[in-house]
Write a structure and sequence with these properties.
Tetrahydropterin Synthase, Chain A; alpha+beta; 3 strands
Length: about 180
Amino acid sequence: MEAAPPKKSKKKLIVIVVLLLLIAGSGVALMLLLKPAPAPGHNGEGPSAEAEAKPAKAHDTSKPPTFVDLGSFTANLAHEEGDRYLQATISLKLSEPELVDKIKANSPEIQHRVNMRLQSKRPSELFSYEGKQILAEQIRGDVEYVLGMRKAPPQMDSGQTAQPARKTEINEVLFTSFIIQ
C-alpha cells in the first residue's frame, strides 16, 4: 500500500499572501506620500483664481501639451521634373488648450492656407530635414496669422533658412505622415 502524502500546511500560503499585501500597501503609501500637493487655492480641478489672473504668455511646462489634428492634405507640388504630389497629415502641439476651439472655428481658412503653402513647394525643397523644418515654421506662421497672433503671413518664397522657433502658444507643427510621390 502507498502511504498518503503529508498534508501541506496552509500556513505557508497565508504568510506569503500577507507579505505580498504588505508590500503592495507599502508601495501605494509611498506613491501617495511622494505625490506633489496641489498648488495653494487649487483643488485639482481647473486653473486656480491666481493662475487665471496671470498673463498666459509664459509657457507652463508643468502641464501637458494639447494636440489638435489639422487633417490630411494631398497637394500637387510645384513642377521640377514631372508630376509629384505630397500627402501629409499635420497636427499642432499647443501650450494653451483654449486654442483648440479657435483653431476649429477657423479650420477652413487654415486648411486653405496650408494647401496653398504645400502647393508652392518644389519636391527638392522637402526632401531634406531642414526643408521640412522650414515648411513647419511657415505653416505655423500661417496658422498664427489666421488666429490673429501675427500681422502678416510668412512669405511664400522658398529661399528661407530654418529659423529658431519663436515662443508662442503654438509650440510646434508636427508631420505625423509625410509622403512625396
